[in-house]
Amino acid sequence: MRDDTFKILIVDDEDSIRTRCIxxxxxxxxxxxxASNGEQALSLLKKDNFSLVIADIRxxxxxxxxxxxxxxxxxxETEVVMITGYGTIEDAVRAMKLGAYxxxxxxxxxxxxxxxxxxxxxxxxxxxxxxxxxxxxxxxxAYPDFIGFSEKIQQIFEFVKKISPTDCNVLIEGETGTGKxxxxxxxxxxxxxxxxxxxxxDCAALTETLLESELFGYVKGAFTGAYANKEGYFKVADKGxxxxxxxxxxxxxxxxxxxxxxxxxxxxxxxxxxPVKIDTRIIAATNKRLDQLVKEGKFRExxxxxINVVRIEIPPLRERKEDIVPLVRFFMEKFKRRYQKExxxxxxxxxxxxxxxxxxxxxxxxxxxxxxxxxxxxxxxxTVKDIPGKIKTPGRVQELPExxxxxxxxxxxxxxxxxxxFTRRFLVEALRYYRGNITQTAKGIKIQRPSLQRMMKRYNIxxxxxx
Length: 467
Fold this sequence. Notes:
The chain has helices spanning 15-27, 38-47, 64-74, 89-97, 110-137, 151-163, 180-189, 208-216, 233-236, 252-264, 290-295, 301-307, 324-338, 348-356, 362-376, 389-392, 406-409, 411-433, 438-444, 449-458; strands at residues 7-11, 31-35, 52-56, 79-84, 102-105, 170-173, 198-202, 241-245, 266-267, 276-277, 281-286, 310-313, 345-346, 381-382. By secondary structure, the protein is α/β, with parallel strands linked by helices. Helix 10 (252-264) crosses helix 12 and helix 13 crosses helix 15 (362-376). The protein is elongated and about 95 Å long. The model is unreliable at 138-142 and 394-403 (pLDDT under 50).
């Protein structure tokens, strides 16, 4: 079922061409109208909202180039495809510079016309999705930095509402760059402790001796250079939250001392003898599976049970690609303000390319890419050419890294990743072989044409990869 808001206008003074195009598109269930000249087209455009106009360049009266300019003045979002005859290629190039989406030369292949219309329809659908997501984004103002509309992220949001009012310890697991620190801060800010300190401790960044003194504090004379008493993070964060990032990197000795904190709610400063009572919530995070480390004897089981009261796993970005568009929009607004490029816009084609990539660095990598595009973009639009090469390389299929532990991923998930990779590569090569002809490709690989189109959308296969 076609979207009835996606409307097409065919403008050509040759009745046979106009009628043929209208009949073809109507057979494909498109909502389409015709006009025999530029003036009639403008009249229809004032009365109705057309997503796509397909117009001949050479027409009596208002010609195609002039019509294009008038359309863009009326609504810059309307896409225009020009029909050009032999000897008018220069006009077509001029039209592209003025904002035309594409052009078709006479006599034109109806399959090419359909391909162009399908591409514009996809772009139109994505634009509508972005508008909806912009409106939906306002609903999540309570979590301004943690963006996600996928079912998995919405489940996390609901879970946070349940656990935030409590004092239970929380374990957050997820790959590097998924936003574990943002989620920890979100839990803290949604809790009764939000008006008290939120202290971040990077357990992988400090040596064991230094980390111990930073966590628990020390008394005067505890070691060389300890000229006065110093409170540790747990005491500084009293009535607040301590976020232990990369807790899996703690030594066994420090794990034992942290166990006492979770059991007795007290600490003993380095060099001290008297325990000090604390009131601090612990949120821990790791990019490893702690349960597996326990089995390997690298993490204390008793401490694992203490911090794993509530466990949250943040899915990698490749498993929630529907979040890419709102994340890009969010980062766009952030960096547009930072670099004073408030007028900068982004082409919908960019989203399609970004969704094709698997983002091994997750949200952090996506944020860096958006920042780079905002900085380097020429003019007032970010286009596909502004995307870093490794992400937009035509035909490249993202593979699982060699160091990926398939056992930890799990059989079902690993199988799906490799099957998707194979399927996408096979389709791209088939489309190249048949020179982009969808009907011939579908026939050649023995599937129905609509099935091939659905698979192309599912795997975000771009025209540039096979044309």
